[in-house]
Design a protein that fits this description.
- The chain is mainly alpha-helical.
- It has helices at about 1-10, 25-40, 40-55, 60-80, 90-110, 115-125, 125-135, 145-179.
- It has eight helices and no strands.
- Helix 3 crosses helix 5 (about 90-110), helix 4 (about 60-80) packs antiparallel against helix 8 (about 145-179) and helix 5 (about 90-110) crosses helix 7.
- The relative contact order is 0.19.
Length: about 180
């Protein structure tokens, strides 16, 4: 127990993002900022959790493939903005993001009626705009690569948790129904 407490406390300084007098932001701070970013915003949580729940309607192999496409498109948007290859007005990008969150929730509610693969493809097509928005949000002194790494790790975790929870809930429902 003592070792666990020491290990846990050793991570606390990494959560302090602002230290006066430092010239730059360390890679670990960029990673932590990226890691926390998707779970600190309700829009991120809703979009990622909804996609994770939608992915539970597919086989594991297809789910991983579609989730990877989503993450890949997000990375393209992120690095497209970072390298100045992609540039849309922030209002337009935010509009696409709001639309995609609404689309995710709508498709989730209609998942019994629609083709789940087409629904996931529709949601995934907006991933590039999510990536663009996050590419713009990286603080100037922060490493974009470490932020992106933390961000992707967190996105994978939220997608996976959403999928696992939906799979578990479905299996539990089926056990109760068949009992």
């Amino acid at each position: 127990m003592k070792k666990m407490t020491i290990a846990t406390l050793s991570f606390l300084p990494a959560f302090a993002f602002a230290h006066a007098g430092h010239d730059g932001i360390t890679m670990s701070q960029g990673f932590w900022a990226g890691l926390l970013h998707p779970i600190m915003g309700l829009d991120h949580l809703i979009a990622l959790a909804a996609l994770g729940i939608l992915l539970s309607g597919l086989s594991l192999k297809k789910s991983i493939a579609m989730g990877s496409v989503f993450l890949g498109l997000m990375a393209m948007g992120f690095y497209g903005v970072q390298s100045n290859l992609l540039n849309l007005g922030s209002g337009m990008v935010e509009g696409f993001i709001i639309f995609s969150v609404g689309l995710s929730v709508t498709l989730l509610l209609l998942s019994r009626v629609i083709n789940i693969q087409l629904g996931i493809l529709a949601v995934t097509s907006f991933a590039i705009f999510h990536g663009m928005a996050h590419g713009v949000e990286v603080p100037a002194a922060m490493s974009a690569n470490s932020f992106a790494l933390g961000f992707m790790v967190s996105c994978i975790a939220v997608l996976s948790i959403g999928r696992l929870m939906a799979t578990y809930a479905t299996q539990s429902y089926m056990r109760i129904r068949n009992a």
